[in-house]
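Hi team,

As requested, here is the filled-out complex form for the norvaline run. I kept the field names the same as last time so the parser does not choke. Let me know if anything looks off before we queue the next batch.

— J.
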Amino acid sequence: MKSLISIGDLTKDEIVDVVQLAVRLKAERSQGTFVEGLQHKIVGMIFEKPSTRTRAAFEVATVELGGYPIYLNWNDLQLGRGETIADTARVLSKYLSGIVLRATSHSTIIEMANYASVPVINALSDLEHPCQLLADLMTIYEKKGTFSGMKIAWIGDGNNVCNSAILSCAQMGMRVDVACPPGYEPNADIVLRGQQLSPVRVIHDPLEAASAADILYTDTWISMGDEAASAQRLRAFSRYRIDEKVLNTAKDDAIVLHCLPAHRGQEITDEVMDGPHSAIFEQAENRLHAQKALLLKLPL
Ligand code: CP
Ligand code: NVA
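And here is what came back:
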């Protein structure tokens, strides 16, 4: 693994390795033990869009591993004035040991990786959110002890997080049902790739998706960049909410995931988010451990 652009780039064994290392790092951290491994490594974080979890978790992870993070706001770089991604990649590769990049367009991440001589990590694009799924799979592993044979139901928008969930959960041998409104389906190529690995269905009934699910997962109805279509989206998605009814349709021991930030009362109710089935805040904590494991596995 040289970079992490798509979660689909990782083999099943590589995902298991990252998850198991993350679980170990979490246990050691809770005992006050910090593994080092990034001494004298400088990790650049370029964000074209806002972030709370991804940025903070990568900065903390880098520091705790003995490295040094540099946050680079897109608009403060010459990128904002038209310097090319390719030239930026070439120059930053001379200073940095790795580049974490959150970009509007997935092609920006691919271009950065093509021209950088150091590892590039996709910290969210319009197509995928692989770092999120590493933490989510870690959470599933902690809660369920296995991946194989689990059923995950995605309720809501067929967005970037959904695409990465399909690719990675199918890779791990899980069944995937996506329930979304017509017109908001996940990426068709990704669905086909997922279907070659495991049963993946895209349907339109949230209760049918939730039926016998071990894991329920949702995300905002209005992703960063979709704000102009808010009114239309609020109408289209009003049925696609994880509430008590959807939760009661899933297995008795189902867990609920949300990548956050949540719009409480829209895609998820307060009751479910703060209820006993929610693993959402452990999932958010696991961003730190999973990203730390990723930084250790990449050739920074
Ligand atoms: N889930 C996630 O990536 O959150 P941030 O946008 O806060 O980084
Ligand atoms: N789908 C959301 C995820 C945020 C972490 C977005 O792209 O805005």
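Two things worth flagging: Residues 51-54, 124, 132, 259-261 surround phosphoric acid mono(formamide)ester (ligand 1) (CB under 6 Å). The chain has two domains: 7-128+287-297, 132-284.

Thanks,
J.
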